[in-house]
Design a protein that fits this description.
The chain is α/β, with parallel strands linked by helices. The chain has 20 helices and 16 strands. It is extended, with a radius of gyration of 30 Å.
Length: 445
């Protein structure tokens, strides 16, 4: 085990002796005779453990501990005193000391204490490093793309992340809704708490109810013991309900109760459970149509859609495709222990001409497949599946097609207003009925 130990003591002979003993354990040792020198050392070097005398020429070690611990929370402090008293010991522990020992009487404790303190510090630093890696992975900076439509979505997500508001993410399958949900959570005040993602379409009605809200033993066949639901597990954190449009009417009613009162009842129970959970929901369905068809509750929709964010399909982010493709190429080359390939011009152009019904998820899969099958240091159009290679260049086929231009323009306006059809109709200077007819005609989202 390695680590850096700072010894603070104005008695030079004792300080040198401690430094010698601790140095023999292969620790790096720093020395200071005053608190001023100690602060200078803490500023310049990463210190793992501090051994500090209580009585020093320029101050008190217990007070120094309080200030130093505030500035360097991961560093552990062991206080040494020639005259132990209960009051100082209690205050030292209250101020964050790892331990408080008496010189001479407890010298044999110092080395084991140092080892334990260093072990704790190293574990804390490792946890902090992992937390930073997770935060970076799910930060807004990890969302790739500079096109205006995706940047607009990021701006909205950043603003709502600072609040505790319920969010509804709209967009086609594969547009990155879970990535946005995780980024919103990680940039919120709940970022140290649980983030739980649930795909509502992956369960039957009965199983989804049990998963979300839990059940009591004997509630149904196979329920042999009480089970916590995901809402309980996510308490004080965030729950992401993907494909919310697939949820049954009965469960929609229970979810509405959670949104309105922060409470629910387990399956087979009569007792109400209170939770404090932020809900982020997502769907690729048009919920207004689902409401009209009687499949989705309008009151739940209004509670979920306090803040809507429309995620654009990949075909509206053509300029981002080369950046995304190169990123995925680097990721999968690393995973398969292959050199990162050069993506040739014809390869990238073919990607940009494709319509991407599966969006970013489909692009990711195509790049992974191309990396696995390719044994050269470049990717060309021949490495792509036939359905992409066969795509005609849309610039030639639709450059003068009036309907294609109209379709594209309406979609851009809808994206700009985050799917607000009333606002879109005003900007397009057409009636709302006309807009709905165009949306139906062109199969727009």
């Amino acid at each position: 085990m390695t680590g850096t130990i700072l010894i603070i003591d104005d008695e030079e002979q004792l300080r040198k002796l401690l430094a010698r003993i601790i140095g023999l354990e292969k620790f790096q040792v720093e020395e200071a005779g005053t608190l001023k020198t100690a602060f200078d050392c803490l500023t310049k070097k990463q210190i793992d453990v501090v051994l500090c005398d209580v009585k020093l020429p320029d101050g008190n070690g217990v007070e120094f501990l309080k200030e130093a611990k505030r500035k360097y929370p991961l560093t552990e402090f062991i206080l040494l005193t020639a005259y132990g008293n209960i009051q100082d010991g209690v205050l030292a522990m209250k101020n964050g000391a790892f331990d408080y020992i008496t010189k001479g009487d407890e010298n044999d404790k110092i080395i084991p204490l140092v080892y334990r303190a260093v072990e704790k510090v190293q574990l804390q630093r490792k946890v902090e490093q992992l937390q930073k890696q997770v935060s970076n992975k799910f930060s807004f900076d990890s969302i790739i793309g500079n096109s205006p439509v995706i940047q607009n979505a990021i701006i909205l997500a950043k603003k709502v992340a600072e609040t505790d508001t319920t969010v509804l993410l709209l967009g086609e399958t594969g547009t990155g809704k879970e990535v946005f949900a995780q980024a919103i959570h990680n940039n919120s005040s709940r970022n140290g708490r649980s983030f739980i993602a649930v795909n509502c379409s992956a369960f039957t009605k009965e199983l989804l109810e049990s998963e979300l809200f839990g059940h009591k033993a004997g509630a149904f066949t196979g329920a042999i013991k009480d089970k916590k639901g995901l809402f309980e597990e996510a308490n004080d954190g965030t729950i992401f309900l993907d494909e919310i449009g697939e949820m049954s009417a009965e469960l929609q009613a229970k979810l509405l109760r959670v949104l309105e009162a922060g409470e629910f009842i387990k399956v087979g129970d009569t007792k109400t459970i209170k939770v404090n959970v932020r809900i982020i929901a997502a769907t690729n369905r048009e919920l207004q149509k689902e409401i009209e068809a009687g499949r989705f509750r309008s009151d739940l929709f209004y509670r979920l859609s306090v803040f809507q964010i429309m995620l654009p399909p990949l075909r509206e982010r053509i300029k981002d495709i080369p950046t995304l493709a190169n990123y995925f190429a680097a990721v999968f080359a690393n995973k398969t222990n292959k050199p990162v390939p050069v993506l040739q011009k014809d390869f990238l152009e073919a990607l940009q001409h494709y319509q991407w019904p599966g969006n970013i998820r489909e692009l990711k899969n195509i790049i992974e497949r191309s990396i696995i099958l390719n044994d050269e240091i470049q990717l060309t159009v021949k490495n792509l599946p036939v359905e992409i290679k066969a795509m005609p260049d849309p610039h030639f086929s639709s450059a003068f097609d009036l309907q294609a231009i109209e379709k594209q323009h309406i979609q851009k306006v809808l994206t700009y207003v985050n799917g607000n059809k009333t606002e879109a109709a005003k900007l397009l200077n057409i009636g709302l009925t006309t807009l709905y007819r165009k949306i139906e005609e062109y199969h727009l989202s």
